[in-house]
Amino acid sequence: MNVIAYLIPISLILGGLGLAFFVFTVKTSQYDDPEGDAQRILSGEYDDKPKP
To answer: What is the pTM of this model?
Structure first.
């Protein structure tokens, strides 16, 4: 039963940190252009091999 007294605050702290990092990424506009990211992945511009 004493273990629960340690696990609950630890889980709340980790959940709060995860939420804080998510809010930080939203505020720094890291999710603004998902379509552009998808197009860059599919383009051959960043391939290591030269195209014939």
So the answer is: 0.60
